[in-house]
Amino acid sequence: MFWTLPALLAALLAALDATLLRRLAGDLPPARMVAYPVFWSLPPFLALLAARGVPDLPAPFWLATLAAVPVNMAGHLLTAWAVRMAPVSRTVPYLCFSPVFVVVHEYLLLGVAPRPAGVAGVLLVVAGSWVLNAGGVGNHARGQGGGGGGIMARLLRPFRTLAAERGARVMLGVALLWGLGSVLNRQMVLYATPAVAGGVFFAVYGPAMLAALMVFGGVRPRMLVDRPVRGLAMGMVLFLAAYVHFTAMSLTTAANMIAVKRLDGVFAVLFDHVSERWRSARRRGTVDASTGRRPLRDGSLPGAALMAGGAALVVLAS
């Protein structure tokens, strides 16, 4: 169970990464949004790799690394596209489906069969995120049922969100990519320490991504340094999130780790609400009592409880 704390920290940092991406670079095209954290995270990764050194790594490590690079490139670009189109509270929760994809990918690629209790925990995490979306969609999307309706109407809201929000649909595809990428990351840490695995991966991934963004995304070198403070903040969060991700992945199966990490959906909703209240306070000078509280009952609390219960079941079954 020593992996639980790193996995929870990975969830917190993943939600913070998505929030900063939207808040600090949401006015830019997706290519430039991605370029900032990738560029500014390279120096700490290269420094870490220089300090640790690169040992003689076997062929399976390099195969997993080279396969993970395009998967993560696509996932990172699509994540930026999704959070640019819609708030993180309506996009990141759909990543909850990635543990299901991880279970399948891990069984097919690594031959790891999940325990029944672990599968039940994964399904609870998915159900919790579904309830989280079912309760919160009405508060964001007008004309889709508002805050009223019965239980079934609430539970069907995420389907309407998928139909109305392209960002939600894109993020569902991202969940499939991250599921595959997580299993490849797990294979990497079977042959190297988290620091070496993360450092080598980003030493390959970072330049490859930046080159692709410059060739196909219209990113120019001068654009990478025109927002140094914002870029540094996003880069450091990405570096910490990736390092903690590899650390947690080295301590348990990919399915267990990702099931707990998907609590980032809960953290994303909290960050989104805090950010909105802060922006409202700046506009009005103070948070009005009628807007400082969420006026409608939604699924945030029961959804979060289901996700937490599912994560706890995964931990106990590990």
Describe the structure.
The protein has 318 residues and is an all-alpha fold. It has one domain. It is built from 14 helices and no strands. Helix 1 runs parallel beside helix 12 and helix 2 (30-52) packs across helix 10 (228-249). The longest helix is centred in the N-terminal third of the chain and has 27 residues, at 59-85. Mean pLDDT is 81; it is low at 136-148 and 286-297.
Helix content percent band = over 70%
Q: What's the mean pLDDT score? A: 81
Number of strands: 0
Outline the biggest β-sheet: none
**Terminal Cα span:** 7 Å
Spans where pLDDT lies below 50 across 5 or more residues: 136-148, 286-297
Question: How large is the count of helical segments?
Answer: 14
| SSE string, helices as H and strands as E | HHHHHHHHHHHHHH
| Radius of gyration, CA atoms, in whole angstroms | 19 Å
Residue fraction in strands: under 5%
Number of domains as seen in the coordinates? 1
| Structural class by helix and strand composition | mainly alpha
Shape: globular
